Amino acid sequence: MPLPIRAHLVRHGRPLVVRDRPAATWELDPAGFDDVWALRDRLPHGATWFCSPEPKAVETAQLLTDGQVGILEGLAELRRPDAWDDAYDLTAARAFAVPAAAAAPGWESLEELRGRLRTALLPLRRTMAGEDVVLIGHGIAWTVLEADLAGRPPSVEAWRSSTMPDLRTVSLPADPHA
């Protein structure tokens, strides 16, 4: 049985919210750079790095490492409409309440997100057994991934307890068919 991958899940730093732009295009708030830099010493040297394509994740990676970082499209946050949502927290809570359904028109379901994450991580699971990997992404995505790995439903409380930035380390099983 191949060794699991030690995955260091970094949630991006605090974004600079621009209400008339989609959240997927937001950049980091420079006032939060110190919080991101504080994670540097907690991450393993020699790890392989990947991040979501969203600017706030890419910028977080740039603050954390001088090395190369691969972009994995599948690590993007839960897909939702581009318009600002004053009820975002409530809509996200509905997503957690019924993971198989879209919480609102245009929202990806948490089950769809889970499948997208599994697909995105499969190549790593096939080739990186026993290695350290740093993955930089988003709060809902990491909450769904952690729940999937633990074999339990995703929890809105776990999502709400995550900070920006945040770091959690999980064991990502290697693909037994590799």
Automatic annotation (TrEMBL):
Q: What is the lineage of its organism?
A: Bacteria, Bacillati, Actinomycetota, Actinomycetes, Propionibacteriales
At the top level of its lineage, which domain of life is listed?
Bacteria
Q: What is this protein called?
A: Histidine phosphatase family protein
Fetch the SUPFAM superfamilies from UniProt. Answer: Phosphoglycerate mutase-like
| Organism of derivation | Nocardioides fonticola
